[in-house]
Write a structure and sequence with these properties.
The chain is globular, with a radius of gyration of 17 Å. The two termini are about 30 Å apart. It has about 220 residues and is mainly beta. It has one helix and 15 strands.
């Protein structure tokens, strides 16, 4: 893998993992995103939320291929299942294959807190644990969120960048643009005046634009 592909991969891995259930819906809800790198479609990212007996279950699946001269230069596959009660994570299981590098994470709530089981350690996390959210504007109030691929609790900084219009399914709508930053990632997320998630975009470390388009 060349240096440009490695830089892109670092951003792609983080974007693919940063998701959390939306609150305030009944029954099942699905999102299907087409993912672009520049003008090229590189794959999809699908989410499904189900509510049952007071719990919310998130199932997410991503599959990306970055091609160069008809050759797959980078392949990313991610499957993640999360169980929530209210706003707090109860259990998570994820499997990721990032161009041959496999990572697995399992975590669940116990009597003394939430525990993450990783190959090299078992790590406790105090309090109510949340993974990253885009369509739940409540994420903008958090200062640390769990990365489902690595099992690490990442410090987060969020700032309001601008109030502007953004194109959603061919129509220009008013929106608030926020910038979400971790130690390894900076991305822009747009919300409507009713706090509905409208768009997402990030610049990879080698200067290319990565975006999710809802279909």
């Amino acid at each position: 893998m060349n240096s440009k592909t490695m830089l892109f991969a670092a951003t792609l891995i983080l974007l693919a993992c940063l998701v959390q259930p939306a609150q305030g819906y009944a029954g099942a809800k699905e999102w299907n995103f087409k993912v672009y790198l520049g003008d090229s479609a590189i794959g999809h990212h699908r989410f499904r939320l189900d509510k049952q007996d007071g719990y919310t279950k998130l199932t997410t699946e991503a599959d990306f291929k970055v091609r160069f001269l008809f050759i797959t230069a980078y392949r990313y596959q991610h499957v993640n299942t999360e169980t929530w009660q209210g706003d707090c994570l109860q259990e998570i299981r994820s499997h990721t294959d990032a161009n041959g590098r496999v990572q697995q994470v399992h975590g669940e709530r116990e009597s003394d807190g939430f525990r993450i089981d990783l190959p090299e350690r078992r790590e406790p996390i105090a309090g109510c644990v949340k993974t990253f959210a885009y369509w739940d504007a409540g994420i903008l109030q958090e200062d640390a969120l769990l990365n489902p691929q690595t099992g690490e609790l990442a410090p987060v900084t969020v700032e309001l960048v601008a109030e502007e219009k953004v194109k959603v399914r061919g129509a220009e709508v008013p929106a608030k643009k926020y910038r979400l930053m971790t130690n390894d990632l900076s991305l822009d997320v747009w919300y409507s005046n009713d706090s509905e998630w409208l768009a997402l975009e990030s610049t990879t470390r080698d200067g290319r634009t990565l975006r999710y388009e809802l279909i």
